[in-house]
Structures are given as C-alpha cells and as structure tokens.
Amino acid sequence: MSMxxxxxxxxxxxxxxxxxxxxxxxxxxxxxVNAIRELDKRGILNSIASRGDEExxxxxxxxxxxxxxxxxxxxxxxxxxxNISAIxxxxxxxxxxxxxxxxxxxxxxxxxxxxxxxxxxEASQVQNLPFLSDFTPAEVTKEASERRILYQxxxxxxxxxxxxxxxxxxxxxxRMKLKVRPAEEQDIPRLCELITRTHQLNTTxxxxxxxxxTEILAQKTGSTKVMVAELEDKYGSYGxxxxxxxEEIPPEWILKYLALSCRVMGRGIERAFLxxxxxxxSDAGLLRTIAEYxxxxxxxxMRALYQMTGFKYDESQSDGEILQFVKSLDGLPEIPAxxxxx
Amino acid sequence: xxxxxxxxxxxxxxxxxxxENCLPKxxxxxxxxxxxxxxxxxxxxxxxxxxxxYIEVEFNISVPDMxxxxxxxxxxxxxxxxxxxxxxxxx
Lengths: 342, 91
Fold this sequence. Notes:
The complex is a heterodimer of chains A (342) and B (91). In chain A, the strands form two sheets. Chain A has an eight-stranded mixed beta sheet with strand order 11-12-10-9-8-7-6-13, sandwiched between helices. The longest helix of chain A is centred in the middle third of the chain and has 16 residues, at 147-162. Helix content of chain A is 33%, strand content 24%. Chain A has eleven helices and 13 strands. Chain A is elongated and about 85 Å long. Chain A is α/β, with parallel strands linked by helices and 342 residues long. Chain B has helices spanning 2-22, 45-58, 70-73, 76-90. Chain B is globular. Chain B has 91 residues and is an all-alpha fold. Chain B is built from four helices and no strands. The chains are: A alpha/beta (342), B mainly alpha (91). The interface between A and B is medium-sized, with 33 and 22 residues.
C-alpha cells in the first residue's frame, strides 16, 4: 500500500511542538526538527494545516529556524481537509501524494474521509518518519534536495505576476535598463553565438563569419557599424541580448541586420533597441533609414516590428530575396515606457 | 439585442484571447477595445504574430504580411474592423 509521498502536511499543537501555542510556551523536540530536515533533503515538501493564530504560530517557527521549510502554510480555523486541498492546488500536486500528521484521531479520520488516498499518521510516529518507505525515494538527486527552493521561486513568481493590475504595471516594476553601444572586440564570441542561434527575432537569418565581424570592428572609421544591446532588470543582468549591423551613408542609415535573443521576447525589447538606434542616427544628422528584411519562414515578427513602427515596404528597391523598408528619421516611434535607456 | 451581440462577437473573442494569454491573472479582467496593445505592453512583435495565428484560424481569414500595419493591429477595435473587411473580401 505504500507509495512515495510528495508532501507532508503538519498539525502544530501537540504534533509539531509539545503544548498549545495560544496557551503559552511550546517546545519543539529535536526528533521533529530532524524529521523535517531529513524529508526536505530528500525532496519531500513540508506544509502546515493547523488551527490557531497564524502570526503567533509563525513566530514560534521563526524562533526555531523552521519557518523556511514550510510551503504555503495554512494556520486558520477552516477544516483541515479544506486547507490540505488548497495546499495541493497551490503547489499543483495530486492530493493522493499527500501525507498528514496529527495527534488527534478525530482530525486524522476527518482528513482521511474527505481526502481519499492521503496517508494519515499519528504524532507519535514522528521519529519513524525518515524510516517509512513512503518517505524514502530510491535515490536522492541534487534536484530533489533543491525542490523546496524551486517550488518557492515558482510561487513567488506567480504571486508577483498576480499582484499587478495591468501588464504595463508588471513591466514597469521590472525596471528594465537597456544599453545600446558599439560592439567591441571582446563581444565577438557572444555576437557569433547570437547570429547563429537566433531564428525568430532575426531580420535576415544571414550568418556572418567571425572574420567578417572582426574586420568591421577593426575598421573604426568605416561606414559599417556593429551595435550591441545589453539588458538588465531587477532580477539581474542578461548580458548582450541583441546585435545590429548598419551602414551610415549620409543622408541614409541602412540597417542591414538586427537579431535579438528569444530570451527577451514578450517585453518589447526589440522595439526599444530599434528606437534607440533610430534616435542615434537622427542625432547624427541622418535623414532617412532603410531596413533590410529577408523572409526565413520563422521571422515574421521582425517584419511586423518594422511595419508597426512606421517603416513602409519599398517594392521598387526590393529584389526577390532582400526586401527594403524605409522610414524618414523625423518623427520617431516612442520607446516603450517600461524600458529605460542607459 | 441579438443584433448587437453579433456585432460585438469578434471584439469579445479578441478580448478573451488577450485576457487569457497576455494579461496578469487577476480577478478583474477587462480590456478596453480601443486601448493601444503595443503602448500598454500587452503584445510586442512576437506576441502580435502569435495573436495573428489565432486570428487566421478563428476567423478563417489570411493576413498578408503587407497588412501588418498599426492602422490594422493597434487595438481590438482596429483588429475587429480589419477582420470584418477581410471576411467580406473572402466572402
């Protein structure tokens, strides 16, 4: 009948600790601490469904340095079966993979009746927990020992996303900073990686040889320029996420190539990168821009980018393969409000 | 009443797609039909292309690359207008 359990839900008073929290001092026995830590190490999650006052109970857990082990603890006056169902839903784990430990027979029976498949355990079994086959995986992987952290990160991410009223509020809260600068020699390996690995956010799909890039960078005064875009947000730095190759032939600025990592899809970074370069070209006194595009079957979004930012398809200048899109440099599209150029 | 319903059905379907795929999952889910989807960060270039794939299948139209323009795809309102126009052409 035994199967590996994914989550153990604890009662608090006279189970996780000796005594009743709201009536005074309680004591957490070392074998309880040991069981919690051992299960955690094996990748079995711990949670709480208990009656009581959440704030008081969490304070005791903090004092015993145990609070971090419990995901989505439920300390309230609702039926325990209802709390266990909520835990299962929030963690997205099947109820049949749960176990529940409580000192009161009434509670264990109530939970067993309401939650089919759950394993119920008496509080006196605490020291045996690590020896039960229900809590003994065949193998403990590195991933298992980090499982609680992975669940916690995922819960935080979900919560954060839910707490915003609009998509724009969420994007603004990420505090994205985009830096657009000329490429340097040490960027070459990353540039080659971007050029060969990006397919969707890539305007031509052409592969440039490493030697060609090196040569352009060496000719500092030449008309061809290689640009890179670096992104960071409040979660950290993404490094170089985009590159562009352009020719300056006054009064025209010709965007031969533009590619961005698919890691940054969905936040309008391609628009911000393009706008930043158009601003620079305009500041340099150029009047008109021509952007080249080649349909690779995967990069329709780059054509959408050009047309949605005001570029017009110029049929007369396009050969069968490379299409040209033109735009005057007075009247520039706006940079998305949530991206700050630095 | 039923006339009015059919007039807005395209807008409602488009709004449902946006709510389902592009907005934070909140209790209150609402998108104004004339809100600019790009300025609000709701879709970007990649998001638009996915949205168009849905539109082509759902409304049985094809969207040529030439038509990927702000006047057609800025908001739910302009997209619905575009869909009706394409349906007439096809029909």
